[in-house]
Structures are given as structure tokens and as C-alpha cells.
Specification:
The protein contains 19 helices and 14 strands. By secondary structure, it is of the alpha+beta class. It has a single domain, classed as Creatine Kinase, Chain A, domain 2 (2-Layer Sandwich), CATH 3.30.590. Strands 1, 2, 3, 4, 5, 11 and 12 form a seven-stranded antiparallel sheet that branches. Strands 6-8-7 form a three-stranded antiparallel sheet. Helix 6 packs parallel to helix 13, helix 12 packs across helix 14 and helix 14 runs antiparallel to helix 15. The longest helix has 24 residues. The model has no long low-confidence stretch (mean pLDDT about 95). It catalyses: L-cysteine + L-glutamate + ATP = gamma-L-glutamyl-L-cysteine + ADP + phosphate + H(+).
Length: about 525
């Protein structure tokens, strides 16, 4: 353990500061496709009774009209966030009719591209912007790739904790924004450690060892055939996070530098402003209709598909990169988690407890800068794990040496253990974080206990990835429909839906200027300091 780790751990273990660990915030975004009873993509619009996808705070759509996204409020304890997520699911099922929510990250059998409807957000300029951005995604990546679902885990530590660390390290408010900058760079350091160790999350929680043949749309691949409609890799953990997932040539060379917030922002701004010849050939309009927001490497910075992002809550009309520049990093968003097909809401409380311990470990541990060579090594370790993480004897590269994945994983579990114990000390539910650590250790010692191994075993038995998805989705749908919300809770959701529809109407009625001018203004607002 580094000196920094031990010092920070001791600070937080002090009676005077222990309560700080209970003041951080957690939130979950869960993506899920609406499908029919056979697992076919729903062709109907987003249910109006669920409110406006543009303005509802908890229920929206992601890429496709049928790809729903459920967003919890932030909570101090992940169990409360999961309770909120469960309530959103129960409410949604009262408005879905005969449809159900797909319980797996990778889609089942998909219709032809032209039959996958892109999400629609109304006639306002901001609503059209969201829609055209998705048209651009279809153009650049294909629609099938946009139907992948995941779990996003939003995590922050309280500002007082960063202030405590700053004071301990001799950072004083000698210059304007010194503490804000310390917090931002501490989150960026945390991101670097996440890059070093996130392969462990893929081994422990990856749940997509197989996919349907329809997903690849004829793309070349090196997968093995399990059945007429299913392809797989025998030791894969998360094909969703492999090069078969959300990738293309334009993004392949994009590696935002995470050695400082400034370098991270600069590299993203460059991608948003740098023309990409194949996109230039397509243009932004076809027959007078917008087909993408720009012809640059990225239309907007959120197009960069990253396993983790430093984030800041944005203000109306503000771009994410502007928020980071102007006010610093506020939280991080973990984006690599597969939907857990054995959990009705897509993620278990035990997984949340482990993520809390893992992310706090990343925040406390020393985090050296990452060279280009290091970055390539971390990417290679991640890629090996998602495609063959359960392969007996698989090695990863650490400090120039090949180390068995299992050996390194067990070492990491032990390094995280004092963090889990610290979290349990301030928790009134017993040793829940330590218990989660023990469960993960068992998966390392016996790969058959990993979600990817369990999923692959069931897919083999059923003979089809789609059949497995239908089975799990049907089970989850029944559990939600059999235990609806209390009437008072249901009424609150209905009120939220009504308010969101009214809010969208106000936006549309008060809009000024045409869409072309709106896009031009949006595209010109990428420089830091612009408001």
C-alpha cells in the first residue's frame, strides 16, 4: 500500500472524520429495451402515460424509441437508490401494456435497420437536437449498436472529504479555486486508477459472453457458433465491452488524456472540432434533412464511448465540457457495467456495495500519471478480460511482466479489504461491504460462479441467447406486475409524468429561432469560458 493510501485511510478512520463516508452520493441509470412477449423490439412510441422523454427526471429514452432509461435520484446509500430504481420499474410496468423490459445488455433478435425507430423528443430546438444527434449515431455506428443496454453508476465523495485531504497535503486557499482544482484533479487521479483496475469489474460482473447473429449485421468477427441464432466466445465475460460493441474507426484513435482535467477537456474539444473526412463526405444534411450535427470526429463530447467519465451537473444550454471547465469535476460516472440478467432492476445491492469499496479504493490509492505505453497496456488488459477473462491461466500485463489474472485479482481484493472494513465501520447494517468482497473472491477462485459463466451455461441449455433473454425478462416482468406500488406512490409518478408533458409544451411554445441557427450556436459553444 502507498503512503498516501495509508494516510488517507487513517484520516477517514478517525472518529472525527468517519461520518464523511456517509455523505457521498450514489445514483443509477439503467437502460433497457421495450420488447414484446417473444423478445422482439417494440414498434410502438414511448408510452405517453410515462410522461415526456425530453423533460421527465426519472424516465426517458436513450437511442431508440424503444430503449428506455430509468434514472434514480442521488442518495447517500446505494440501497436507497436501488429502492428508487425498483419503484420506477414497478410504475413503468403499469403503463407498458403487453410489452416487457429486456433483462439482458445485448439485444435479442433485431429487425432490419430501417425498422428501428430513433428516439423522438418533440418539435422544440433542444428536442430536435437530441433526435438529430441520434440520427448521426445511426449513420456512424449503425442502429444495432445503439440498442445495447448497460448500467451507469454515478458516484461522488463529499466536498468536505476532499478539503480534508487537501489540508492534510498542505493545499491551502492561496489562489482562487485551489480547493476546487484539487477536487477535480483528485477525481481525475481516481479515473486513472479505474483505468488500471477496471478489468476486475469485467471479470466479476461481465454478463454478455454471447450475442445474437442479427446483432453483427454481417460484420466480420472471430466468434464461435453456439446455434443458428447465437455466437459466443467460450471464456468471454463482456462482449458488450469488446471491440464488437460501441466502436468505430473514427473513435479508435481517440484516447483522451486523463493526466489532468485540462488535458482531458482539451482532447475532447479537439475531437468535437476536428473534421473527419468520411463524415465530411456525408455532410450534415441530405435532401434538406439534418442527418448529423457535425462532420467532426465527435458530434458532441458525450459521443465518446468511455468506460468512465468525470462529470458535472450541467446548466440549461450548457455543454458538459463547459461545466467541467467552469466549475470542475463533481462526480464520476462508471459506464462499463453490464445489466445483471439475474436481477430484476439490472444490478444487485451486493454489486453496489462492492463498487463503493472499489471506487473509494481508487480514490485513496496513489495514482501515477499514465504514459501512452501505460494507456495501451491498460486497454490491452481490459480487452483480454472481456474476451477471455475466464480462460484458465490467462495473464495480464503489470509493470512489464505477465501476471495471472487470478493472482492479481486476489491481490486487489486484499488491497480493497481495509476500505470495505472502513465503510462497514460507519454503516449500521453490519459487514455488508466485507461480505460483498468475500463473494467476489469466491468468483475469482471458481470462475464457474461468475455471471458470464452462469449465463453461458444457461444459453447452452436453452440453445439460444434470445431464449435466455426472454426467459429472464419474463421472470422479471412477473415479479414487478405481481407487486405493484402503493396508490400514493403511483399517484406521485403520474404527477411527475403530467408535469413533464406540461414542461415540454412550455419549451415548444416559447422556443425562438430556427433549428439551423440553434445548431450553429450549439456547435460554436465548445470553448471553455463560453456561457
Amino acid at each position: 500500500m502507498s503512503n498516501q493510501f495509508n494516510r488517507r485511510l487513517a484520516l477517514l478512520g478517525d472518529d472525527e472524520h468517519r461520518a464523511l463516508l456517509g455523505q457521498g452520493l450514489r445514483g443509477i441509470e439503467r437502460e433497457t429495451l421495450r420488447v414484446d412477449a417473444a423478445g422482439q423490439l417494440a414498434r410502438t412510441p414511448h408510452p405517453p402515460a410515462l410522461g415526456s422523454a425530453l423533460t421527465h427526471p426519472s424516465i426517458t429514452t436513450d437511442y431508440a424509441e424503444a430503449l428506455m432509461e430509468f434514472i434514480t435520484p442521488v442518495e447517500h446509500d446505494i440501497s436507497l437508490a436501488l429502492h428508487r430504481l425498483d419503484a420506477i420499474h414497478r410504475h413503468a410496468y403499469t403503463k407498458l401494456g403487453d410489452d416487457m423490459l429486456w433483462g439482458v445488455s445485448m439485444p435479442g433478435e433485431l429487425p432490419p435497420e430501417e425498422e428501428i425507430e430513433i428516439a423522438y423528443y418533440g418539435t422544440s430546438n433542444i428536442g430536435q437536437l437530441k433526435h438529430v444527434y441520434r440520427r448521426g449515431l445511426a449513420l456512424r455506428y449503425g442502429k444495432a449498436m445503439q440498442c445495447i443496454a448497460g448500467i451507469h453508476y454515478n458516484y461522488s465523495l463529499p466536498e468536505k472529504l476532499w478539503q480534508l485531504f487537501a489540508q492534510d497535503e498542505g493545499i491551502v486557499e492561496e489562489r482562487r479555486h485551489a480547493l476546487r482544482d484539487f477536487q477535480s484533479e483528485s477525481y481525475i487521479a481516481m479515473v486513472r486508477n479505474f483505468r488500471r483496475y477496471s478489468w476486475l469489474l469485467m471479470y466479476l460482473f461481465g454478463a454478455t459472453p454471447a450475442l445474437t447473429t442479427s446483432f453483427l449485421r454481417g460484420r466480420p468477427h472471430a466468434l464461435e457458433t453456439l446455434s443458428d441464432d447465437t455466437l459466443y466466445l467460450p471464456y468471454a465475460t463482456s462482449l458488450r465491452m469488446s471491440d464488437l460493441g460501441y466502436q468505430n474507426d473514427a473513435q479508435s484513435g481517440l484516447r483522451p488524456h486523463e493526466n489532468s482535467l485540462e488535458s482531458y477537456v482539451t482532447s475532447l474539444m479537439d475531437a468535437v472540432n476536428r473534421p473527419y473526412p468520411p463524415y465530411q463526405e456525408l455532410g450534415t444534411k441530405k435532401d434538406g434533412e439534418w442527418i448529423q450535427l457535425s462532420t467532426n470526429v465527435l458530434q458532441i463530447e458525450n459521443e465518446y464511448y468511455s468506460t468512465i467519465r468525470p462529470k458535472r451537473v450541467i446548466r440549461t444550454g450548457e455543454r458538459p465540457v463547459q461545466a467541467l471547465c467552469n466549475r470542475g469535476v463533481q462526480y464520476i460516472e462508471v459506464r462499463c457495467m453490464d445489466v445483471d440478467p439475474y436481477e430484476p432492476v439490472g444490478i444487485s445491492l451486493e454489486t453496489g456495495r462492492f463498487l463503493d469499496a472499489f471506487l473509494l479504493f481508487c480514490a485513496l490509492e496513489e495514482s501515477p500519471l499514465i504514459s501512452d505505453h501505460d494507456s495501451a497496456m491498460h486497454a490491452r488488459n481490459f480487452a483480454r478480460t472481456v474476451k477471455e477473462g475466464r480462460r484458465p491461466g490467462l495473464t495480464l500485463t503489470r509493470d512489464g511482466l505477465e501476471v495471472p489474472l487470478a493472482t492479481w485479482a486476489l491481490e486487489l481484493i486484499e488491497r480493497i479489504r481495509p476500505v470495505a472494513a472502513l465503510l462497514d465501520d460507519g454503516h449500521n447494517e453490519g459487514d455488508v461491504h466485507t461480505a460483498s468482497l468475500s463473494r467476489q473472491k469466491a468468483k475469482i477462485e471458481d470462475p464457474a460462479q461468475t455471471p458470464s459463466a452462469r449465463v453461458l451455461e444457461e444459453i447452452r441449455a436453452l440453445g439460444s441467447a434470445t431464449a435466455f433473454g426472454v426467459q429472464q425478462s419474463t421472470l422479471h416482468a412477473a415479479s414487478f406486475r405481481e407487486s405493484p406500488l402503493m396508490p400514493a406512490e403511483e399517484m406521485l409518478f403520474d404527477e411527475m409524468a403530467a408535469v413533464s408533458i406540461a414542461d415540454q409544451m412550455i419549451i415548444e411554445q416559447t422556443d425562438t429561432g430556427n433549428f439551423d441557427a440553434f445548431v450553429a450556436a450549439y456547435n460554436s459553444s465548445t470553448l471553455c469560458g463560453n456561457n
